[in-house]
Design brief:
Number of domains: 1
Number of helices: 8
CATH architecture: Up-down Bundle
Order of helices and strands: HEHEHHHHHEH
CATH topology: Methane Monooxygenase Hydroxylase, Chain G, domain 1
Distance between the termini: 68 Å
Helix content: 55-70%
Amino acid sequence: MVFTMKRNKMIETLDQDKLIEHKQRIAYHEAGHAAGIHLNNKARQLPPVFFKIIFKEMSSVAAAEIMAYQTTHDDCIAQVEGGRLIELLPSSIEDLADELTEHNDTTMQLVKDYMLAFEADIINLLIGPLAEAKHVADADDELFNHRLVNLKALKNYGGSSDLALTNEYLHSFSADKQQKDKKLDELFTVAFDFVNDDTNWAAITHLARYIFDSSKNIIGCDEVVSMLDQSVEHFQNRRIRARQHHYG
């Protein structure tokens, strides 16, 4: 009886530790998406887009849902709602470009703007699982680099649905597999560098910790944007003061 009680207590502790670990991973994943949507789009001079973070009450999350998240990230626990610059994908970007340029040469700028938004959406999708991967690497005191964390590895960091949506974008980009693979590799590198940037990572970390500690089920766009901007400003000011002190 005593042994059974101790064993049950141990299992309960392990389950709780697992729950905390997964909540942290999910918090970094969604913080990564949000940081991409705001900071990456802002850096590319793209228009702001509305989004919100919806987080399920963890006390009602079953163990099966946690395991499902790790393998599929099927939005059973958390998601960023909104945030995409392009909601409806054309059947072919090439056909869209031809259709526009046939009517007016000046519409080429529209095609360029569309491609900027198209690429930004993909980058922001990839930033989520990459942020989770970097968090796991940092927690385990491991390296975070392109060799260890590649596109295929993102499935281990809740990236399955992100990759599936990315593939939908690429399907409209080109029918040529080599072109699609080349574009995906290019955008993956941009997303990786975004997450690995010290300023961006500080903002992602700050937001992830807020999500983890928050009792809110929904965190609104204005709140997230304000938090990310303040974090970037704070980090940059700290860097300036550190340089002044070093050279002072």
